[in-house]
Hints:
Layout: H1 19-27, H2 34-39, H3 46-61, H4 64-79, H5 84-97, H6 107-128, H7 132-152, H8 156-168
Helix pairs in contact: 3-4, 3-5, 3-7, 4-6, 6-7, 6-8
Amino acid sequence: MILITDTAGDKAESPGLSPWMHANLEVQGYVLTRDESRALRWGLRFPTALCLAIVVTGLILQSALLLGALVPIGVVAGWTARHPFDFVWNHGLRHLTGAPPLPPNPPPRRHGFKVGTVWLGTVTLLFAFGQPTAALIAGVPLALACGALTVANFCIPSTVLSLWRRRHGAGAATA
């Protein structure tokens, strides 16, 4: 198991991030010191918060176009080390707050983005083909899952993958 440690190497709590939230970052593949995790707590949430806002807006408007615009962003997020919105944080917003740049996304987090992208694509297609009820039935849980990641660093796909790997003895996730 990967631990988030303080600067002395001991597992520790940090103000503003509960031990459970630290564990959630571990499940996503991050290896951060206590100070790093605290410094990155807003930056790591920024890409998913922006996606969450767009998804919720798309669901309210029942807009296949708006939701569909996020699909290529999800593809890049899932198959590269950087979420496109990481660049907005790293080259803009972080300078306003004095925060450090975001590290590359570890494979378990990217796998979560892949699941979210397929889910988002499904919701988009349901709206596009005139199935708003089905789209909302699929879309609301997507928004809730994105909200869990944004608020608590709880990535459902990364957690399921971690449980699967523990149960079946698989090695570390790869991209």
